[in-house]
Predict the structure.
Amino acid sequence: MVIEKRNPRQGIIPWRPFHALEEMQRGLDDFWSWPMIRRFPFDGGEFMPAIDMYEKNNQYVVKAELPGLEEKDVDVSVVGDRLTIKGEKKTESEVNEEDYYRSERTYGSFFRSIDLPDDADADKVAANFDNGVLEIDIPKMAAAKPKKVAVSAKKKAKSAK
């Protein structure tokens, strides 16, 4: 038995409780098949380097994975309390064989910005690039040590009576 709902303009139509969900699913399927969406970073269209930041001894360390890049392709800058890593990735792959030809090229720029902690010494930042891994060392500012201040009392002059 099918439960039907009456619509005065359309006559009797079947009741479909999941009709709205089916419409939403169709809309999402259409959205994800749109060509522009396929270029999002999770689909491999853009390069976004993975970054780790941790505290070690008396400094902060930022590590970024930049496979296929060289140190000349990477720019590290500190403006105020913000560390920025910029770069450009250029990859070309070409195979020219007897019965086929394949060429792939990937180009694109990237940048990542990180807010530095309040006690980071931005003037002494150092960066090293080794085997596709960028390591940035950010020393902490010297902690302000409390200074002992001697308290002395002023002696009041005795008044003459």
Summary: The longest helix spans residues 19-32. Residues 36-45 have pLDDT under 50 and may be disordered. Strands lie at 4-7, 11-14, 51-56, 59-65, 74-79, 82-96, 101-115, 126-130, 133-139.
